[in-house]
Write a structure and sequence with these properties.
single chain, 440 residues, mainly alpha, 78% helix
Length: 440
């Protein structure tokens, strides 16, 4: 549990921890534009989202332990390269390869939980694993703010000892799980189509605010992503062993979790980036002060994530997730009403952060636990699909925030928080509409 939780935390933290470090990185590479710096985030988001599902399917065929340890090794090595990067180009390239390692780690770590624990403990351990992901997302800005006070390179360097320790522990403790010999190899055409669809969609979403949503390049990327998505669906329906099997969506719980994760993650990405940006750009907090000010959210998430198993046993999966998504919407409504240009942390930002922590701790665990409703041999692929949905949603949320806040004004942030509220309400609606008709 410690090994699988640690590697999942490390891989997911790096998606969020860089947000507060961009100014420091820009100072290390004079003359670098904001658009160029944004690729430190974008390269990771695009590659991570695109590689998740193919990596999950390959892990089932090749061996989950082997894939996980290979991913940890790649992630650790590229973290060291990023920490020592002499130029922005090297840093962006290292981030892209780091994302490949993270995509090898995250779904495989969940896929290894199921065979490592008896069935009666699955709700507990999956709740803990998903809670770790929620904490990683919420803890990104505070951890980043603390490390940036030393040097932005520590954001990447800290992964090296953690990676080495988990490589050794994982080699000794984790079981090897793979499909029986002779199982069909995942269809290459569907894997390539999915890779193109996701990467083109996230690229279009990331570049849209800068290029303009009606720019020919943006429209062409969205059109190409739609064609690749259609090809993916066609292979899913017709191929012998598609990278996404249609049986995954036979159950209402998994389908609901996939849709809700997309919507919730779009809103949650707005939360994480908007709060850090607002406090730094409108209230003029330092990166350290902004990071520490966000800390109540991950602390609240920890409290609920550690009790995810008992909460699900008592209330089921749907009720906690719906409560969490609505808490995120309520936080947005509170900020629109209470946060103004004049700094007022305790009366303005703080109550909403508590609600956001409640949302992260209650929502993500039951949604990721939906992978446990699948057959054991599909758990890793199911986890990869859920993570892909989350990553695409996060990319959309960041793009919407950038588009709505071209200047750091309270009006722009109010518009972004309105989108956050809508995403939370829509996620709750998806969960209620697709909830199982009969609860065991």
């Amino acid at each position: 549990m410690a090994v699988l939780g640690a590697v999942a935390f490390m891989a997911q933290l790096d998606f969020f921890v860089v947000n507060v470090a961009l100014d420091g990185i820009g100072q290390s590479f004079p003359g670098t534009s904001v658009a160029s710096l944004s690729w430190i985030l974008s390269a990771y988001a695009i590659v991570f989202a695109a590689v998740l599902v193919p990596a999950g399917r390959i892990a089932d065929h090749w061996g989950r332990k082997k894939m996980l340890l290979s991913g940890v090794a790649l992630f650790t090595l590229t973290s060291a390269v990023a920490a020592a990067a002499p130029s922005l180009g090297v840093l962006v390239g290292a981030r892209a390869l780091q994302a490949v390692g993270a995509a090898m780690i995250v779904p495989t770590s969940l896929g290894l939980l199921y065979p490592s624990f008896p069935k009666r403990q699955h709700t507990l351990v999956v709740g803990l694993w998903a809670g770790v992901g929620a904490i990683a997302a919420s803890a990104g800005p505070p951890v980043g703010g603390l490390l940036v006070t030393l040097d932005w390179r520590w954001i990447f360097l800290i992964n090296v000892p953690v990676g080495i320790a988990t490589l050794v522990a994982g080699a000794l403790l984790l079981p090897e799980v793979r499909q029986p010999r002779g199982a069909a190899v995942p269809d290459a055409a569907s894997a390539l189509a999915l890779l193109l669809a996701v990467s083109l969609l996230v690229l279009a979403t990331v570049q849209g605010p800068g290029w303009g949503w009606t720019d020919l390049r943006t429209v062409a990327l969205f059109a190409a992503a739609a064609l690749a998505a259609a090809a993916t669906v066609e292979r899913t329906l017709r191929a012998k062993a598609p990278v996404i099997e249609k049986q995954l969506f036979a159950g209402r719980q998994f389908t609901a979790a996939t849709a809700a994760l997309f919507l919730f993650s779009a809103g949650f990405a707005i939360v994480l980036l908007s709060t850090a940006l607002f406090m730094q750009e409108v209230w003029h907090f330092s990166p350290l002060r902004a990071g520490v000010s966000i800390a109540p959210a991950p602390l609240t998430s920890i409290a609920f994530a550690m009790n995810a198993g008992p909460i699900q046993h008592r209330f089921g999966r749907t009720a906690p997730a719906v409560t969490g998504t609505l808490a995120m919407a309520l936080a947005a409504g509170y900020w629109i009403a209470a946060v103004h240009t004049t700094p007022d942390y305790w009366g303005g930002m703080f109550p909403g952060l508590i609600l956001v922590g409640l949302a992260g701790g209650l929502t993500q665990a039951p949604l990721f636990a939906a992978a446990g409703t699948l057959a054991p041999e599909r758990a890793t692929t199911g986890s990869a699909v859920l993570n892909m949905s989350r990553q695409i949603g996060s990319g959309v949320g960041v793009a919407l925030l950038v588009a709505l806040t071209p200047q750091a004004t309270t009006t722009g942030f109010d518009h972004a928080w309105s989108v956050q509220a809508g995403a939370g309400i829509a996620a709750a609606g998806a969960l209620l509409a697709l909830r199982p008709r009969h609860t065991p």
